[in-house]
Specification:
The structure holds 2 protein chains of 2 kinds. By secondary structure, chain A is mainly α. Chain A is built from 7 helices and 3 strands. A 3-stranded antiparallel beta sheet of chain A has the order 1-3-2. The chains are: A mainly alpha, B mainly alpha.
């Protein structure tokens, strides 16, 4: 499927969200018990996301693949029958090391939330201004909506597209650049658009993928903002007023 | 100097300063006439005075020193007026990376990456540029990797006076779960185990940054002792 987009370039997304983020995302979304992770289920979902990212030609960090291997290893160890000889030393649950890492990371993430609150409170407090250097823009991020929220929303869209005609291989009717232009035009008139609505006109999966990649590119370029009011709810896209929307 | 003038002089110095100043530093204005304790007492009076008069500013203890800052209750007005001066929010990745550095300092890039499960080059670069973290020496192991720690600017950014004010990490962990599943630093440990752990860690740091290590050790110890108290309550 990776060639269907017919694109000359890969979207170079420096993913600052890694495999632990994805696992925590899945755990939170499906309300899994982090201390008793259903390893089969989570491995399958993890791999589904990985496949989706690969299909989209996203530059995935090697860490994701290492984690995939780890999950599969844990899975197979859990499938092994218990040792009939009954080892004296209690062998640790194969998931234990992973769970420890997840718990530790989760604790730091929550500490980060606390920092966010402190930062917010302090941002309204000022001292005498010195000759402060202009801060360059922070690293690329999706704001408070994670890459995985976007991927989930996109997966939903893909599912709902019916390709009634068998895949007609036309030459690229639409490129990512075209779609970027379309979205920019649309945001000029409507200040905010629901994510799903951007795909209404998509005639087939190829067009949907191209549209999605255009959205990612606009996010990367900070020309749009994305917001998700409810956890795992509808995503809204609006133009970033700090930037003038040019083509 | 007229004794009456102590407070106004301190007030004037702080008024002109664009960063926090310690009582020791402030004492220098008086050419040995005034003790640090007297300075602190005077500052405390100033702080109370501003509060009781309902001034638009407050005298705060921040980033290890004293500074006159706009009163937080007027944040919305200040933000509106000084929009262009507002510090940009940190990205989630930077904030998480910073969170790891704050609690684990001094810490190597590799250790941070192990916690976050992903490369941290970008966030580290950003945090260094913003002077929220600094290089705190090198770990005395093969390769001598760089160690990172937080800065005074870090404290100022979050309105903290010292790293000790951070709530213990155990506060963020899940309650009521199998203790054996918790990472070592989050389990309730005895005081002596905790001290032994820190001593083992600091022994690795080597002479170059022993002073830094001791400073951090003290702050870590108090973080851990808070945590130990919490653990015992459970």
């Amino acid at each position: 499927m990776s060639d269907r987009t017919g694109m000359d370039y890969r979207i170079r997304l420096e993913l600052f969200e890694g495999p632990l983020d994805l696992l925590l995302y899945l755990i939170k979304r499906d309300e899994l018990n982090i201390c008793d992770i259903p390893i089969m289920k989570i491995t399958q979902q993890y791999l589904d996301y990985l496949n989706l990212m690969e299909d989209l030609n996203l530059d995935i960090a090697g860490d994701f693949l290492v984690m995939a291997a780890t999950l599969m290893q844990i899975k197979s160890r859990m499938l092994l029958p218990p040792d009939p000889a009954g080892l004296e030393t209690q062998e640790e649950d194969p998931r234990a090391e992973l769970v420890r890492r997840l718990l530790e990371y989760k604790a730091f993430k929550e500490a980060a939330e606390r920092f966010r609150e402190l930062e917010s409170k302090q941002s309204g407090v000022f001292g005498r201004f010195g000759s402060e250097p202009e801060y360059k823009d922070d690293d690329v991020s999706f704001g408070d909506v994670s890459l995985f929220d976007l991927l989930s929303a996109f997966a939903k869209v893909l599912k709902s597209i019916n390709e009634d005609k068998p895949h007609e291989i036309l030459k690229d009717e639409y490129t990512v650049a075209d779609k970027i232009h379309d979205i920019v035009e649309r945001l000029k008139s409507e200040t905010t658009v629901k994510f799903s609505r951007l795909f209404r006109a998509a005639k087939n999966k190829l067009e949907a993928i191209t549209t999605f990649l255009a959205i990612l590119e606009l996010i990367r370029l900070k020309k749009v903002l994305i917001v998700q009011d409810e956890q795992f709810g509808e995503i809204e896209i609006s133009k970033n007023s700090n930037f003038v929307l040019e083509d | 100097m007229d004794a009456q003038d102590l407070r106004p002089i301190l007030e004037a110095i702080l008024f002109a300063s664009d960063s926090s100043l310690t009582a020791d530093e402030l004492k220098d204005a008086f050419d040995g006439e005034i003790s640090t304790a007297a300075v602190k007492a005077a500052l405390s009076e100033l702080e109370k005075e501003y509060e009781s008069l309902g001034r638009g500013f407050a005298l705060k203890e921040i980033a290890g020193g004293y500074q006159i800052l706009t009163h937080e209750r007027f944040s919305s007005h200040l933000k509106r007026f000084y929009q262009s001066r507002e510090k940009k929010r940190l990205s989630p990745a930077s904030l998480e990376t910073l969170s790891v550095v704050a609690y684990k300092q001094p810490v190597t890039k590799a250790d941070i990456e192990f916690v976050r499960g992903v490369n941290v080059d970008g966030p580290l670069r950003t945090l260094l540029e913003k002077n929220l973290i600094k290089i705190a020496g090198r770990k005395e192991v093969p390769g001598r990797p760089i160690l990172y720690g937080t800065t005074k600017e870090f404290l100022a950014h979050f309105g903290l006076n010292s790293v000790k004010e951070l709530p213990p990490l155990s506060e963020f962990s899940e309650k009521d779960i199998d203790q054996n599943l918790l990472p070592p630093q989050m389990r309730a440990v005895t005081q002596s185990e905790a001290v032994a752990e820190i001593e083992a860690e600091t022994a690795e740091l080597g002479s170059g940054i022993r002073e830094e290590g001791l400073a951090e050790q003290n702050s870590k110890e108090s973080l851990l002792s808070d945590k130990v108290e919490t653990g015992e309550e459970d």
